[in-house]
Amino acid sequence: MAFHLNDPVTALKNVGGKREKLYEKLGVRTVGNLLRFYPRSYVDYTSPKLAAECVPGEPAVIEAKVLKKLTPAPIRKNMVLYKLLLTDGLSNVMLTIFNNEYAYYDMKVGETYLFHGKFSTMGGNYQLTLSSFIRAEDGEVMRPVYNLTEGLSNGMVVNNVKEAVANWGRLLEDILPQEVAARHSLMPFEEAVRTIHFPSGKDAYDRARYRLAFEELFLLSMSLLLLKGRDKGSTEVQIKDPDMGPFYASLPFELTGAQKRAIGEILSDMSGQVPMNRLLQGDVGSGKTMVAAAGCFAAFKGGFQSAIMAPTEILASQHEATLKKTLEPLEMKVCLLTGSLTKKQKDALRAEIAAGTYDVVVGTHALVQKDTVFQRLGFIVTDEQHRFGVRQRGELVKKGERPHHLVMSATPIPRTLALIVYGDLDISVLDELPKGRQKVETFTVHSDKRKRALGFIKKELEAGHQGYIVCPLIEDSDSELMAAVRYEKIIQTNYFPEYKVALLHGRLKSDEKDQIMNAFKEGKIHLLVSTTVVEVGVDVPNATIMMIENAERFGLSQLHQLRGRVGRGNAQSYCILVSDNEGEENRRRLQVMKETSDGFVIAKEDLKLRGAGDFFGDRQHGLPQLGIADLLEDSALFRTAQGEAKALLERDPGLEQPEQMRLRLYMDEIFGNNDSGLN
């Protein structure tokens, strides 16, 4: 049988259609994907403890002999409790196994095993709730633990990975240049992959992880350098000293110092010979749209068009409304180009855009389609840019002759991390909120206080305000999570019969979403039951209260984004986080939400809790994904890898040397269509 890394996972033993779908949920479609599906942690069997040395409430590994098996006890439907009496030679331990018939019958009385699980004491007796076990004589001393989905056990993944390593591992090739690997004494790639899945000990693990993290960060650095290099060269869009007086005079409020500073940085960039490539970071409600509007006005004064690309039609419509209100009194024409327009409407609008009728074009992905042509595009804004791929942003840039590019993000990132992640961008930060904004009071409650919380929401509605209730799911599933569809029906009937309650979620058609949001903005809807579709950009100043169900299901930064939908007017606003999860990590997360409203502080805590490894991969679609490297923990390694990438591109800008062939092919694949900026 011929083996290929792109073989589907069904090429592995015991992987049929059902398990294939489970792997797909984890992003694993091929055997090559599985080999790079690194463990999230390990059970270290190398140093077992005596029961007397273990800490109650914490995970533990003990070496013990099975003395006796107790009779299995069914405790409810589809749940059986298994118990075994163990001895570690000094103390007895009662082992509890939930619903794992295989483990119970696999263990033999009189044999010794290494047991891993949660240790506890009751009435002076030692207890261990089993997570996993191995035979004492087994040589596998560090057992991998993988991210899983329901229906896929850790044992299944371990067996599949063992087969993949044995039969496909030899196909793994080094992308890193040999001289770089030699300079840093890096383990060969195949050996590193095999070792990271099944390390023989801590030293072997450390060497394998270093090798794999170095490669990920090297490839990421190379991609960012190529992105940055692609935009080099002079631009004809040089706008010198535009008269911004009319713009400032037309505003009904004074800009914050941070907004003025950011506008100054943007105007300085737009006057230069090199195209601007700037990130505008601002917390929710910090006024990024006004800064973008100033850039559009400057472009207009220079005789150029502007394009603003948003990830959703709701956000694009909102930008269009704000920009029309701000810019049309200044004799600028603003239009909205989205996928929901009819073909006839799109064709007519595109003809006018090409003729230069419109000065500012706001839109969604429709902006990057081939049929959209600009007369003289000089300024581009991509909002919530992490939702767009590298290629999409590149396609929009190509619509002009080296236009200036402003990237906006309401996802705060600690500055040191932003400098790494956005290595191809200069950075402006809006760290002030407009005057009159009040801190949103945040509370946490258990679900048994839900009725009381709904009563609090009712008081806000009685005062003439509006509110949101956010659920993690759209429709019911087998889980205990709140689903928006059922929730909306229950509260409309039982709690808010005299108010208009509406449902908003991602499966609705674009025009339906727009109708609901417009009715909410106009005050025709009092309470919106929604999924996270309201996370970004929805601006309704009269909304003063938000309740988030199953708050433990959301990341800290996502909770902060959701909370940012209230507190946008002058009235005191509130956020209620509902969660029954008593885990230490969840308590810490929710405490952070209660204590601070600073998005940068929250982002830092979020990164500490969940690591930065997935931060970049989740948000920068199109660039190399990080599977093992951590941008916070590996910042020194990142700088080393970045230095090697820079040095290589200086020596061989086009990666034309024979030893760089694999690296060049990889970069072309990442960027697509040989658009990597390589010669």
From TrEMBL:
EC numbers for this chain: 5.6.2.4
Which InterPro entries does the annotation name?
Answer: ATP-dep_DNA_helicase_RecG, DEAD/DEAH_box_helicase_dom, Helicase_ATP-bd, Helicase_C-like, NA-bd_OB-fold, P-loop_NTPase, RecG/Mfd, RecG_dom3_C
Boundaries of every Helicase ATP-binding domain copy = 269-430
> Could you state a single Gene Ontology molecular function term?
hydrolase activity
Name the Gene Ontology biological process terms. Answer: DNA recombination; DNA repair
A Pfam entry, by short name = RecG_dom3_C
Q: Does the keyword Endoplasmic reticulum apply?
A: no
Q: Does the keyword Glycosyltransferase apply?
A: no
Sorted keywords for this record are: ATP-binding, DNA damage, DNA recombination, DNA repair, DNA-binding, Helicase, Hydrolase, Isomerase, Nucleotide-binding
Q: Which domain of life is it from?
A: Bacteria
Looking at the record, the residues that make up the Helicase C-terminal domain are 449-608
Please list the reactions this protein catalyses: Couples ATP hydrolysis with the unwinding of duplex DNA by translocating in the 3'-5' direction; ATP + H2O = ADP + phosphate + H(+)
Free-text function comment from the UniProt entry:
Plays a critical role in recombination and DNA repair. Helps process Holliday junction intermediates to mature products by catalyzing branch migration. Has replication fork regression activity, unwinds stalled or blocked replication forks to make a HJ that can be resolved. Has a DNA unwinding activity characteristic of a DNA helicase with 3'-5' polarity.
Q: Give the protein family.
A: Belongs to the helicase family. RecG subfamily.
Query: What is the protein name for this chain?
Result: ATP-dependent DNA helicase RecG
Q: Which organism is it from?
A: Fumia xinanensis
